[in-house]
Amino acid sequence: MVRPATVPKPPLRLVRDGESTGALELEDIYRTYCRYVGAIVLRLSGRKAELDDTIQDVFIEAARGLGGVRDADAIRGWLATIAVRVVQRRLRRERLYRWFIPGREADYAQIADEGASALDRMLIARVYEILDQLAVDDRIAFALHHIEGETLEAVATLCRCSRTTAKRRILRARLELERRLTHD
Amino acid sequence: MTDADPIRRLRELGRHIDPELEDRDVERVLRGVAQRGERTRQRRSLGLGLLAGGLVTGLLLFSANWLYSRGTSAVATTAPTSVRSAAPSFSAATPAASTPREISTPGVVLADGSRATPVDSGTELALAEDSARLAQLSVTRGRAHFEVAPQKERKFVVRAGAVSVTVIGTVFDVEVVADRVGVSVEHGAVAVDWGSDHARLSAGEKGWFPPLMVSPAHPAVARSRAAIAETSNRESTDSSPSAQELFARVDAARASGQTAQAAALLRQILRERGSDARAPLAAMTLGRMLLTELGQPREAAAVFADVRARGVGEPFAEDALAREVEAWVRAGDTQRARTLAQSYLGRYATGRYANKVRALAGLP
After folding, report:
1. Is residue B343 included in any domain, yes or no?
2. Which residue, of B161, B182, B209, is where some domain finishes?
3. CB under 8 Å to B114, separation ≥6 — which residues?
């Protein structure tokens, strides 16, 4: 007897005919950009334990907004914008939880890969601990500029604010980080 | 270290903050997205159903109250009609047909009792033929485990991309990762064919096919399905782009952040232009991309091992060995990393990577 053969793909609504890009297949977008989104999410949030959930949030939101994308080349930036928004939301929620539940701290000891030296790992962990204490907007702008390596213009676009505001947020976070690292 | 140094250093350290997702992790996330989307739809349907039910109940109560106050007996005939109309709107919105079926899907059991079982959750396994002379299955994604009942007169073939595995009575696994196919044999033996050449694997042996680097004597191997899919919109498989063109495409893909495509093109260079003077450089680039950008340390280690096996000169040999140590450390195989690190230190005691290799492998 032959039983059913195929393990089905995830039941996604996959295909949409874009006006200028041809068929955009959502599942392919996921596969192509999953690692990219994962890297942005991790650098912004620093939370490895929530990585899967956060990436899923990004792609679920992406699935809703796919209709707005007209250019396949814009997908990367579009996903980055969503990732920033999702991480922002999660960090705000986390701050609220921490306010009600003291001692709910993230563990940043394992955030860096094995290529980083022990000293670098300590620095990264300490930076993220301090970032946890800053305003979420400042933290995101700082991480985008100083860790992800985005330009001021890109930070402003991703954070949906003016270049001046982006610059001010980055500077505020930077000064606070320098102050606290000096204290250490 | 000055006060400003740590902040400046962060940008450099950013590359060490990488989730290093492997293909399996990506599939797991993808499945999670699908399942959460499904749950959201179900919750929305449930919410709508409850809302509709509430409205209908409210309407019924209001109607009953109104009719009762008028002294009529119409309540008994109104109620069932309304409830029936509400019920289908709930059940129809519950997508029973689209619920994932993989949990209850046991794989394939053939007429002779041979079994093919998906190992990973995203595995795509299909039965093409199950006749007295031939059993043919295909694996297009993921990993599957095969237990083949001994049959003297019947061929059992598993196709995965451009690779086919032929067997008579054995137990083996076939895994598809990107455009490469891994075969590992538990019992018996299999013949692996990838178009331009073939190999035989016996019990306990495993390998990835087509081999990443072919000797100049071998003709170019057939492209795998994934590579064809990635390049089909740019060129036909009959046209044979020069190594120069392929390198230019790799650069363009990398510049636009299409790392997976760049990796596929590098593999294509290694398969089709293995004798090119730049092939070792392409292999090293591919290995580094797999290791640091695509998060596939095992694949990367295999590439670096291929580079060394090819007998390349310095500085590639030293670089490849050091990188292979790093790849195995990242893959979590510290024993293998340590053995290779000792090999490195034996050959290059004062080499460029000696300190790094020692640190990676935890050697004094």
Report:
1. yes
2. B209
3. B135, B146, B147, B148, B149, B151, B156
Report CB contact under 8 Å: A56, B14. Answer: no
Q: How far is A124 from chain B (nearest CA, A)?
A: 8
Task: Check whether residue B140 and residue B241 sit in a common domain.
Answer: no
Give the length of chain A.
184
- Cβ–Cβ pairs < 8 A, chains A and B: 165
pTM equals: 0.44
B240 in the same domain as B129: no
A96 touches chain B (CB under 8 A): no
**B260–A149 C-beta distance less than 8 A:** no
Q: Is B229 on the interface with A (CB under 8 A)?
A: no
| Å between B63 CA and nearest CA of chain A | 40
Ordered domains of chain A (ranges, CATH):
12-105 (1.10.1740.10), 107-184 (1.10.10.10)
SS (H, E, C) B81-125: HHHHHHHHHHHHHCCHHHCCCHHHCCCEECCCCCEEEECCCCCEE
Residues B279 and B316 in one domain: yes
Query: What is the extent of the structural domain holding B336?
Result: 225-361
Give ipTM to 2 decimals.
0.77
pLDDT digits (tens, 9 = 90+) for B133-175: 888 898 887 788 888 887 777 788 898 877 888 886 678 888 8
